[in-house]
TIGR00269 family protein (Thermococcus paralvinellae), 305 residues
Amino acid sequence: MKCRFCGKKAYIKLHHPKMYLCREHFMEYFERKVKRTIEKYRLLGKGERILVAVSGGKDSAVVSYVLKKLGYDIECLHINLGIGEYSAKSEEYTKKQSEMINSKLHIVRIKELLGAGIGELKTSRPTCSYCGITKRYIFNKFAHDNSFDVIVTGHNLDDEASFIFSNIMNWNTQYLAKQGPLLPGEGKFVKKVKPLYEVTEREVVAYALAVGIDYMLEECPYSRGATTLSYKEILNQMEEKRPGTKMNFVKGYLRKRYLFEQEVEKRELKECEVCGMPSSGEICSFCRVWRLKKPVELEVKEVKR
Ligand SMILES: [Zn+2]
Ligand SMILES: [Zn+2]
């Protein structure tokens, strides 16, 4: 099959909209789609300091590559979770990826910072639960302490669709009130955005391959058999029968999101007694899980400005 624009040999067949594209025209299509997402949802403002959360996987590698290509000045932050070989390899990938795009990479190593890696902490919480708390907290506090205006994550359309789907299946309505391509900042919470919101996982993989990005394929050893994977599979089956299903599902959700707003418990946020970051209780869940007596130090001394 041939590219619909130039007649060269097709690199990919897109299902929605249905068309064949050569490698160059696919790259152009993908980058334009990301650019449109940024403009449509006003994700990034002029002069904002941008921090990209990078894991070594394809999504964060692709979003940082495309942002750089679109002319944004970015810095990256990788959290080494301290999960043996898996984390060592992830860190190596983030180093290679930021060298490729010539962007500054910050690395926070959980084991050095907190004395234990994810999976080594004795707590009643499930590993993925306190890992999530830890990552969210560090990304936010790092951005806050080093005066970044926005945190970029690599979530793609499939991630969003399966997140919404699983939260509807479990009627976690309070989570459904505040999902979307942009989570506004508030107080010490830094704004979070998802420029890959409208591209599918398949398109992200094809783009990484097209531009030659090397990325971590292995899944975290603790996430094996995660239920979000089965939600993704179901959505993929539906997408195959009716191309556009995922996009329509997510766009429909954004239109109806206001219906879930009343489900949010309006709780006054206090400041954590240990670290001073926003918290619903006396001590925030991060300081509680890690049993901290003083706040973690995340300010980078040589940061410019
Ligand atoms: Zn072409
Ligand atoms: Zn705290």
The mean pLDDT is 94. Residues 127-145 form the longest helix (19 residues). The chain has two domains: 29-264, 266-298.
